[in-house]
Design goal:
Length: 228
């Protein structure tokens, strides 16, 4: 398959890039042939804007057979384990809207903009209709924010507003939205690096999360990835 592999930072995909480089393949020179797939690796940068720009730019140049987004995430759901990898099956924008004069959050529909260009409302879950042929990755529901949650008060407010949200990312929703509108098969893998709680990087399992993410990614790239 011709695959576009999208990641916000090089750090999150470094173990896989290291393998390519040891095999004499360079991610800087374009497409990489590996395990029967042709891979174009794109480091988008962090956040919704960077993801949107990078993905739409590359889809405009050449349409792949599928797109894979990988990265780390924070977990609202305490049943999820730091260092474990999950398949994200729904995503939503968590802060797309406005505040009223009392600080109450208003969705696009609340302020009369819900129908403009088909933008989803905050919290409107976009579902991935394509499933992994490989069944051993548990599924989670994601929420995308422009600001990473760093206090207990914010975490509580978001969890109350979106009780179904299990993980928090900064890139998932635009990725889902673009792939759905372009009707292109896609897959999102997220490894939990930390729980969503008062910000304390000392509690994060970054090394473990990144290593397991790349192990699962390399394993998946040995298979037929998508079923409808």
């Amino acid at each position: 398959m011709n695959l576009l592999l999208l990641c916000a930072t090089r750090l999150e995909i470094e173990p896989t890039l290291t393998i390519f480089e040891k095999e004499g393949k360079s991610s800087q020179t374009g497409t990489i042939s590996w395990n029967g797939h042709s891979l174009l690796i794109c480091i988008s940068g962090v956040g919704t804007f960077q993801t949107t720009y990078t993905l739409t730019k590359h889809l405009g140049i050449q349409r792949p057979d599928g797109v894979i987004q990988v990265g780390i995430a924070g977990a609202y759901d305490r049943d999820l384990s730091p260092g474990c990898v999950y398949q994200v099956v729904t995503e939503a924008f968590g802060d797309l809207g406005a505040e009223d004069h009392e600080g109450k959050f208003l969705s696009l529909s609340d302020i009369g903009l819900g129908e403009i260009h088909g933008l989803p409302n905050a919290g409107e879950q976009m579902e991935n209709p394509w499933k992994l042929a490989k069944k051993d990755l548990p599924m989670v529901r994601g929420l995308t924010l422009n600001t990473v949650t760093g206090t207990a008060q914010t975490a509580q407010r978001i969890s109350h507003r979106y009780p179904w949200a299990q993980i928090e990312t900064m890139e998932g929703a635009p990725f889902f939205g673009i792939c759905l509108r372009e009707n292109i098969p896609f897959l999102c893998l997220r490894s939990v690096s930390n729980y969503v709680e008062p910000r304390n990087r000392a509690n994060w399992k970054m090394v473990e999360a990144i290593q397991e993410l790349n192990t699962k990614l390399q394993d998946l790239l040995k298979t037929n990835l998508f079923i409808s």
